[in-house]
Structure formats: structure tokens, C-alpha cells
Task: inverse folding
């Protein structure tokens, strides 16, 4: 990681596993990582696909003249352009994937009457086993991510589903077993990032696709992030529209662990603890959790929350918030040592209804920090100098 990116390096931290830390002092808004997905799959239950390209997940408008369908499964898989279609037919929508999804969509699909979560997991497994065939190197990378074999009923069921719909004779070195299927499911659960549907203030946030980003997978969680990630699925004009970009939220010293929040930062203490335990297998001991563990239920509820879809490692967090926030890019100082997160919410949380996104400054220009804050969910841009003036 440090070879091609001198800003961050990977280290091993006791009780946290692999982690990413800053190699030098970082300025608010600096980009510390750009990463491309090795696996990308739809977040929609079968047979739906949403109005998104089946390869790059761009929104396809209903009258788009450039949209083309798969020559085999037709309108079940739509692509935003013939270029995307031809890349997809060689990579993400091979005959293997096309055949498997066609069977999973059929009237006698083994997924019928099963929960939508199983549909999405089956989509992931089809994409992951396809990866083993089209890019053994990237499949090996997927296997190196956090997530252990745990053969439970869900893994046994999904393995039997995949066995019945996929011609899996070409897996070669990796074999095909319920243990491999269960390991893949664990990698997905701990490491997938959600790419959100376009923001709509009148609707709850929801995910259009999930991706595995191999380098971004090394960010650990903190309930007050010091970095957050952005994507530009619909606005980027090239083939890298599904890349994610991670920027630091405020100035950081060298050697500081850089953390994201694995879910929207406005969840209350008990929900955060529960999700981290159940979904990621650890008990969070960050500064914010240590403060909030002593709050009464009333105080906890006062924090408020916005209803959210489960979007996995979506937002962003810092193990020493107070120290980092004393001087910030906008010159505000932290006023209350006990509640650094009150400052965080005021400064770095998007205030739009149903958004719950995190704000980070745009990248510095000529080493000068930007005063423009960007929300990583709704994309809204605001000027923090104006915000300061209003306070
Ligand atoms: C996406 S991975 C992050 C990288 C991981 N540490 C590794 O070694 O690959 C998520 C896993 O990292 C660990 N982790 C993340 N944040 C943590 C934290 N704040 N405290 C302890 N463990 C954490 C948990 O095991 C979690 O399931």
C-alpha cells in the first residue's frame, strides 16, 4: 500500500488487525486513497435490476438511446452503452454469470420464497466465483481479506443454490466447496462497500450496488471518522465511475490511524455497538463510545437518528478526536472536552433530511485548504466560512 501511495501505509495493530496510518501530516480534504472494485454486484433482489447499468451501475434513463441489452438474457441485463456491454461480456457478465442469473431469475428458482438478503448474497457468490475464473489474481486478493470460514445454515443453503445454477467445473486451483462459499460470504459481510442510489430527500437512503475495494478494506472503524469516502457513480464520465475516493475530514498528524465509519455516524450508541458486534465481530472502544457508554437512555435518544438502509461500511471515525479538532481547517476550536462529537455533528454531518452523510473539505489547492465542504451522500457543497459567519 505504501509503495504507490506515500500518504498512508498498512500496519498491524493489536486487537484491530491490519490498519492504515498516515505517513506524514495530512491536510483537511487530502485524498489518501483511490480504489477500484474487484467485485461489483447489484443490491437488488432478483429478478429486479433497477434502472442501472448491469456493469458500471450508472443510472440509465428510460429513453436512453445508448442503452443496449445482453444478447443472451436480453432486457434482464441492460448496459448503459455498447462499450460497457462489450467490457461486461468479457468480465462481469460472462456466459457463466448470464446463465447463473437467468436460472436464479426463473420461475422455479431455488431462491423463490427466500429473503431478499439471500438473493443479494447469491448475486455476490455468482460474481465472486466468476472472478475466480476471469481473474484468479483478484480472487486470491478477495480471499486475503478479513473474514473466516463459518459454515452455518445460510452458507449451506447458498452453496446448494450456487451448485444448482452454476457450471463450476473450471475453478481449477480454488476448488468449489461449502467452506469456500462460507469464506466468501464472510469476506463480503466484513468488507463490502455500498454504492448509494441517487439522493432523494423524500426517500430513505438505499444501496444500488455493493463492491469489494481491496485497499479500502483495510480501513478500520471509528464512530467519529477522521476520513470519509466519496463515489461519483453517475457523474464520472469515464470507466472508473465506480472508483471510491477517501479524503481526510480534518488535519491529522503523521502516524495517526485513519478510520472510516462503517455506517452513518448518527446512529445511537446501542445500535452502533450491536451492528459492530453482529456484523463485524468486535466491541467498539472508541472515544465516542467510551463517553456515550455512561449516558442515560434519554441522553442517547436525544442524539437522534435517521432511518437507514443497511449499506455496509458506508460512512466514516478518530481515536483522538479532541486533539485533532482543536485547530481545524476552518479555524473553529473545540469547546467541550467531554463531547467532541457534538462539535463533529455540527461541523461534519450533513443537515439535509434523510441524508445522514459526512462532510469533508474539497482537496486543498496549492497546499491551501478548501473552505468548501462536500457531503459524501447527497453531494451538497457548502462553504464553511459562511457557516462560521452564521454561528
Ligand atoms: C474491513 S476489515 C478492516 C481491516 C481489518 N482490520 C484487517 O485486518 O483486514 C473489518 C474488520 O476489522 C476489524 N476492526 C475494524 N475496526 C475495528 C475497531 N475499531 N476495533 C477493533 N477491530 C476493528 C474487525 O475485525 C472488523 O471485522
Result:
Amino acid at each position: 500500500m505504501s509503495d504507490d501511495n506515500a500518504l498512508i501505509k498498512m500496519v498491524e495493530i493489536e486487537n484491530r488487525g491490519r490498519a492504515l496510518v498516515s505517513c506524514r501530516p495530512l491536510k483537511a480534504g487530502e485524498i489518501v486513497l483511490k480504489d477500484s472494485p474487484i467485485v461489483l454486484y447489484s443490491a437488488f433482489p432478483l429478478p429486479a435490476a433497477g434502472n442501472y447499468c448491469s456493469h458500471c451501475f450508472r443510472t440509465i434513463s428510460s429513453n436512453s438511446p445508448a442503452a443496449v441489452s445482453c444478447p443472451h438474457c436480453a432486457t434482464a441485463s441492460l448496459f448503459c452503452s455498447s462499450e460497457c456491454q462489450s467490457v461486461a461480456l468479457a468480465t462481469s457478465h460472462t456466459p457463466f454469470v448470464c446463465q447463473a442469473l437467468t436460472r436464479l431469475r426463473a420461475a422455479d428458482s431455488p431462491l423463490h420464497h427466500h429473503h431478499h438478503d439471500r438473493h443479494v448474497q447469491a448475486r455476490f457468490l455468482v460474481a465472486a466465483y466468476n472472478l475466480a475464473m476471469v481473474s484468479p489474481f483478484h480472487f486470491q486478493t478477495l480471499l486475503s481479506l478479513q473474514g473466516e470460514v463459518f459454515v452455518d445454515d445460510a452458507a449451506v443453503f447458498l452453496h446448494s443454490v450456487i451448485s444448482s445454477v452454476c457450471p463450476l467445473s473450471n475453478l481449477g486451483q480454488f476448488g468449489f466447496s461449502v467452506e469456500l462459499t462460507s469464506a466468501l460470504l464472510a469476506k463480503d459481510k466484513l468488507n463490502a462497500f455500498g454504492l448509494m442510489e441517487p439522493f432523494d430527500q423524500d426517500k430513505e437512503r438505499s444501496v444500488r450496488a455493493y463492491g469489494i475495494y481491496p485497499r479500502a478494506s483495510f480501513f478500520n472503524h471509528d464512530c467519529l471518522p477522521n476520513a470519509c469516502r466519496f463515489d461519483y457513480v453517475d457523474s464520472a464520465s469515464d470507466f472508473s465511475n465506480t472508483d471510491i475516493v477517501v479524503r481526510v475530514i480534518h488535519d491529522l498528524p503523521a502516524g495517526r490511524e485513519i478510520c472510516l465509519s462503517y455506517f452513518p455516524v448518527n446512529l445511537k450508541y446501542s445500535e452502533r455497538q450491536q451492528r459492530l458486534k453482529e456484523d463485524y465481530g468486535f466491541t467498539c472502544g472508541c472515544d465516542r463510545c467510551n463517553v456515550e457508554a455512561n449516558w442515560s437512555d434519554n441522553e442517547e435518544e436525544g442524539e437522534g437518528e435517521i432511518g437507514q438502509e443497511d449499506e455496509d461500511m458506508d460512512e466514516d471515525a478518530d481515536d483522538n478526536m479532541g486533539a485533532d479538532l482543536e485547530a481545524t481547517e476552518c479555524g473553529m476550536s473545540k469547546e467541550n472536552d467531554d463531547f467532541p462529537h457534538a462539535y463533529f455533528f455540527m461541523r461534519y454531518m450533513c443537515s439535509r433530511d434523510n441524508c445522514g452523510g459526512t462532510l469533508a473539505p474539497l482537496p486543498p489547492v496549492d497546499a491551501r485548504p478548501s473552505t468548501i465542504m462536500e457531503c459524501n451522500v447527497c453531494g451538497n457543497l457548502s462553504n464553511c466560512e459562511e457557516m462560521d459567519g452564521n454561528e
Residues 15-19, 146, 190-191, 217-218, 220-222, 280-282, 284 surround S-adenosylmethionine (CB under 6 Å). Residues 104 and 111 are 7 Å apart (CA to CA). Residues 301-310, 315-336 have pLDDT under 50 and may be disordered.
